[in-house]
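ok posting inputs for the zinc ion job
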Amino acid sequence: MYLYNSATHKKELFVPNNPDLVKMYTCGPTVYHYAHIGNLRTYIMEDVLEKALRYVGYGVKRVMNITDVGHLASDADTGEDKMLKGAKRENKTVMEIAQYYTDAFFADCEKLNIKKPDVVEPATNCIDEYIEMVQKLLNDGKAYLAGGNVYFDTSSLEKYYVFNDHNEEDLAVGVREGVEEDTNKKNRNDFVLWFTKSKFEDQALKWDSPWGVGYPGWHIECSCISMKHLGEDLDIHAGGIDNAFPHHTNEIAQSESYLGHKWCNYWFHVHHLNTDTGKMSKSKGEFLTVSLLESKGYDPMAYRLFCLQSHYRRNLVFSWENLDNAVVAYDKLIAKIASLKDEGEVEADAFNALKERFVGALNGDLNTSLAVTAVYDVLKAKCNDATKLAALADFDQVLSLNLLSAAENLRKKEAEEAAASADPEIDALVAARTEAKKAKNWAEADRIRDELKARGIEIIDTPQGAKWRKV
Ligand code: AMP
Ligand code: ZN
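and the output
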């Protein structure tokens, strides 16, 4: 599989340390509010990546954190803790907010067929690990104490801007809102590993540490949680492109300084879902959720298809019109699948040829729009329906669009509707008219047609015989 690696700025052949266990880490949500459909675009594409890796034969262990402390309003380590902001907004405790929005996040994931990672770890579970890492960085002269906080010293690194040195666009994603200079920092890019002194004395969650009562910085949680569950070598680290700088840049800085060797080999970044006014953002307060889509009658699967139709490295513009187009595409697709009959033996050669196209799409830097095209190729293929159904079931292990179950539901619904509108008396009259026509008894045939018309029934003659409908 070829994947674009943001750390090297090119597509690379994916070679894991151990093919039986690809180690994958994903930055989880900051649970101070609902996830918006932009956040969920990132999680959908990471889900596809994980499933694609499994599909092409790798074993995968995937770990995700839940940010329930330490993510401040500004990435420059200033501003209020987002969790505290959420708690104040809703007059609840931080832990109540964290639990409520963590549950809401996984409920949304389930609706979108996003598999839960193998390990999900709340940041507040790993305080000992953060303290251990920070202490080692201090001992090794990679961190310093200033104004009561512990900072990472970026001047101790040979190289800091891992993702950004070639790319102006990447730098732009790190643009910081409402930056206030922290005068404790020795270098502009130094960042907080552990807060003890903050101008926000009302921080709700605090722990004892060798440097005083305080709380961890946001970046340290991902390094420690990843190492806790995946060890010292990570194959893939994933997240939204806004996390590349400073979050992932800082994760690399502290992890590699702590380990003394390279930490993660491939960096997978999903680009943004934008609205016509720019990036969809939780902190702006107004955003679209899965529940909102559902309340407007949208099937979450249509949103998943909408995401799969575009490449993860392109910005995706959300509009209701674009979503409506995805709904039409999804409904048509499911209707076509519902018309397939599961008869005959699967034709191995045809199946393999279809699968080859699908695998080719995934292997080409997770080209999901081509993978969706491979689904249409199945429907157009010159093979029997059993082969088509087998290929669709196979592809849906990765796409997770409910291709077969939605088709089955549609068939059931249509059968129920037909049964609900069945009327044996009318059927008998229509059959009698057909007999009369056969016997060339035109007067009787016309009489029956008129009688039915008077009862509000119209007869439609089709090549498959006479049908009727209420008018
Ligand atoms: P957060 O809950 O704010 O920590 O973000 C959760 C994930 O969503 C992170 O991986 C972000 O990079 C990603 N993200 C945030 N905004 C967007 C967006 N508009 N489109 C796609 N991904 C996003
Ligand atoms: Zn992270």
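notes: The pocket of zinc ion (ligand 2) is lined by residues 27, 222, 239, 247 (CB under 6 Å). DSSP finds 16 helices and 18 strands in the chain.
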